[in-house]
Amino acid sequence: AMAVMYIETPLPVIVVLHNAEYQGAIATQHMGKHEAQHLGHVFNLPPDRVVQETFIEGKFCMLKPVVDFAREHQEGFGICAVSRNYALEASQK
């Protein structure tokens, strides 16, 4: 899901969500500047970009970049869910 952070030209993507609440999230306490620097090093990305594109309420989420990408470049098309309940949950967040 983070692969979209490395492409220069937008291309079509499809994302299948099983449980948007947990998929892609890493159980952590609030992450700050130090953790962002570490993740930036791990993923070879600027720490500010890691915070902007992968943090939700101080937590690291690898799913966020591709969901935001589909919303921005595909008007939300390409985001699918395995059930109506998960689709409703994801559309509200």
Describe this structure in words.
- The chain is α+β, with helices and mostly antiparallel strands.
- Helices cover 42% and strands 11% of the residues.
- The chain is built from four helices and four strands.
- A hairpin with a 2-residue loop joins strand 2 (55-56) and strand 3.
- The two termini are 17 Å apart.
- The model has no long low-confidence stretch (mean pLDDT 85).
Could you give a short description of this structure?
The chain is of the alpha+beta class and 93 residues long.
Helices and strands, with pairings:
Layout: E1 15-17, H1 33-43, H2 47-54, E2 55-56, E3 59-60, H3 64-74, E4 79-81, H4 84-92
Parallel strand pairs: 1-4
Antiparallel strand pairs: 2-3
Helix pairs in contact: 1-2
